[in-house]
From TrEMBL:
Its cofactor is pyridoxal 5'-phosphate; Mg(2+). PROSITE patterns: ODR_DC_2_1 (PS00878), ODR_DC_2_2 (PS00879). Residues 579-632 form the Arginine decarboxylase C-terminal helical domain. This is Arginine decarboxylase. The gene is speA. One of its GO terms (molecular function) is arginine decarboxylase activity. Residues 94-346 form the Orn/DAP/Arg decarboxylase 2 N-terminal domain. The lineage of its organism: Bacteria, Pseudomonadati, Verrucomicrobiota, Verrucomicrobiia, Verrucomicrobiales. The active site is at 502 (proton donor). Belongs to the Orn/Lys/Arg decarboxylase class-II family. SpeA subfamily. Its EC number is 4.1.1.19. Keywords: Decarboxylase, Lyase, Magnesium, Metal-binding, Polyamine biosynthesis, Pyridoxal phosphate, Spermidine biosynthesis. Coiled coil: none annotated.
């Protein structure tokens, strides 16, 4: 990238699309630092993220680290509830809205605690899809007006616990997802003499075009067909428990990008709901599941990484559809429940890591002259550079590629030296770079030269993609990535990002730059003695839960941040995994490891390879490492 004296923070704002994806939670300050907007006694406080990181380092924790902002979590819950409540009022809807948070989206204790505390004013509930999640929900959800929705497979222990907990005034709904569940629930209800609150999950015919479209439609793994729903209704009627059927649930899949498919699914589900009322079921609750999307790439489109609607439009369309269908059927408007997890939790967390090193192909120097007695093909490649101009770009490109391939073949057969091969690579890089520089100035560019820069720098980040951003690897999920400082300077490098795992998949090469999907990200050149820090945003949903121990790189440091009276508060600190921690996860006993290493060291003393004093130093280093961070640690950390 060429340097420009006119570069400013607005240029960086446009380049990284901050206004498009940040939802007004983040902005660039005049000094080029990225700020987060938090609440301070009823006012908005703009806090420097680099200063937050520096404060954390002063307290003994280092990068990589995960920042949590509880204010952003609260804002998302507030916005979601306000959107539905406004739509209810404006449409004269006679039912209510009750949100529930799916614990699976981010199961961390702090998340559940903060959601239940802030959400209590909205009677915001929880969704549990397993016994561990149900136990967590029961411990934190004490609001008798909020719902605990129980999805997923349920054994007798799960069902008994849910039923018995209703005696304490909790509104717990068992959603039937498999035909076999209905008989077990009825059996346990009679045995415990507890009438349950029941729901059924419907398989809709409506599909969507999201990455998770397989979760919707009639081929969905979960849910009941219309025949199975009617069989459940008949079974409940026969057992005089049809009044226990309160809820219809459906789920379109996560991150639904198109509002039209949301309306279509809500319409179909509303028809089923009202037919169940006609069958004599008590009903009263319509659970529209998840699917409310996040605009990861800022395009406001129906791409997989975006959505073409806002929260209010989402709420208004749901309310409009359900009201219309219910009015046509002549039935009361149901209370709407949504299970929006991604939309609530995504903004909550930000991954921060430092760049350790850069590998730049353009850094290879080309000797002033060709080595003596070199192969003629090297002379030919050098001549390509001498006659390169705007009129013969395609020809020069073809010649350069040809001679390079020939020289590589000659090397494999032992006919050119390693130094000749290195000279070839450096010269080829310079020629192709020059060709693309000229091509950018032309209106009519040969197709093969129109794909952008052929050589990108690799910036090595102090993080594990598999631990902190598993969706980037697994499903090519796009997350906003950008520097958190130096944003008043023009970035001069085009790069991809690599993590510190020994895996070729441990890289990020999918970015949103200047409003378009790109295979590179513009970054700044490293400065001697200064850290270069990048942030990855919207990582609060699923990433912590799905992260794994590839290369035994564990959980990062986690710090929860707020602000009070103008001062940054470090509310909670959770140290990342130590080497001892991750080794224990894969069945190593660190005491046994130390003893085995001690035996090796002692044998080395006996054999005269090291002195006893050196053995002590080696053992001290081993013990210190076992208790250390799994990531790269700077000497001054």
């Amino acid at each position: 990238m060429s340097k420009s004296s006119s570069w400013d923070i607005e240029s960086s704002n446009d380049l990284y699309g901050v206004d498009n994806w940040a939802n007004e939670f983040f902005s660039i300050a005049k000094n080029g630092e990225l700020h987060v907007h938090l609440h301070d006694e009823g006012k908005t406080a703009s806090v420097s993220i680099p200063e937050i990181v520096e404060g954390i380092r002063e307290r003994g924790l280092d990068t990589p680290l995960l920042l949590r902002f509880h204010d952003l979590l609260a804002d998302r819950i507030r916005n979601l509830n306000n959107a539905f409540n406004s739509a209810i009022k404006e449409n004269n809807y006679q039912g209510n809205y009750r949100g529930v948070y799916p614990i699976k989206v981010n199961q961390q204790q702090q998340v559940i605690e903060e959601i239940t505390e802030f959400g209590e004013q909205y009677h915001y509930g929880l969704e549990a899809g397993s016994k561990p999640e149900l136990l967590a929900a029961l411990a934190y959800m004490h609001d008798p007006k909020a719902y605990i929705i129980c999805n997923g497979y349920k054994d007798q222990e799960f069902i008994d616990l849910a039923l018995q907990s209703t005696k304490m005034g909790l509104q717990i709904i068992l959603v039937v997802e498999m035909p076999s569940e209905i008989s077990l629930i009825l059996e346990r209800s009679k045995a415990l003499d507890i009438r349950p609150m029941l729901g059924v999950r419907a398989k809709l015919s409506t599909c969507n075009n999201s990455h998770w479209s397989h979760s919707s439609g009639e081929n969905s793994v979960f849910g009941l067909t219309t025949n199975q729903i009617l069989n459940a209704v008949d079974t409940l009627r026969e057992n005089e428990m049809l009044d226990c059927l309160k809820l219809l649930h459906y789920h379109q899949g996560s991150q639904v990008p198109d509002i039209r498919s949301i309306r279509e699914a809500a319409t179909e589900a509303s028809r089923i709901y009202n037919e169940l009322v006609n069958e004599g079921a008590a009903m009263g609750l319509l659970d529209i599941g998840g699917g409310l999307g996040i605009d990861y790439d800022g395009s406001r489109s129906d791409s997989h990484s975006s959505r073409n609607y806002g929260i209010y439009e989402y709420a208004a369309d749901i309310i409009d559809v359900v009201k219309t269908v219910s009015d046509e059927a002549g039935h009361p408007h149901p209370t709407i429940i949504s299970e929006s997890g991604r939309a609530v939790a995504a903004y909550y967390s930000v991954l921060i890591f430092n760049i350790l090193d850069v590998n730049s192909p353009s850094a290879d120097s080309v000797p002033q002259s060709i080595p003596e007695k070199t192969h003629p093909h090297l002379n030919k490649l050098s001549e390509v550079e001498s006659y390169l101009n705007e009129e013969n770009l395609q020809e020069c490109y073809n010649d350069a590629v040809y001679y390079r391939e020939e020289i590589l073949s000659l090397f494999r057969h032992g006919n050119v030296s390693l130094r000749e091969r290195a000279y070839c690579n450096s010269l080829f890089t310079r020629i192709i770079t020059r060709i693309h520089e000229i091509a950018k100035t032309m209106e009519d560019v040969p197709e093969i030269l129109a794909d952008g820069d052929p050589f990108l720098d690799v910036y090595y980040g102090n993080f594990s993609l598999f631990q902190s951003l598993p969706d980037s690897w697994a499903i090519d999920q796009l997350f906003p990535v950008m520097p958190i400082h130096r944003l008043n300077e023009e970035p001069t490098a085009k790069a991809t990002l690599a993590d510190i795992t020994c895996d070729c998949d441990g890289r990020i090469d999918n970015f949103i730059i200047d409003g378009e999907h790109q295979k590179h990200i513009p970054l700044h050149a490293l400065k001697e003695g200064e850290d270069y820090l990048l942030g990855v945003f919207l990582v609060g949903a699923y990433q912590e839960t799905l992260g794994d121990l590839h290369n035994l790189l564990g959980d990062t440091n986690v710090v929860s941040v707020g602000v009070k009276n103008g001062k940054t508060q470090y509310l909670r600190e959770l140290a990342g995994d130590t080497i001892s921690d991750v080794l224990s996860y894969v069945e190593y006993d660190t005491k046994n490891l130390e003893e085995r290493f001690r035996s090796l060291a002692e044998r080395s003393v006996e054999e005269g390879k090291i002195t006893p004093a050196q053995r002590r130093q080696i053992m001290d280093a081993y013990r210190e490492s076992i208790g250390g961070y799994t990531y790269f640690e700077s000497h001054n950390s």
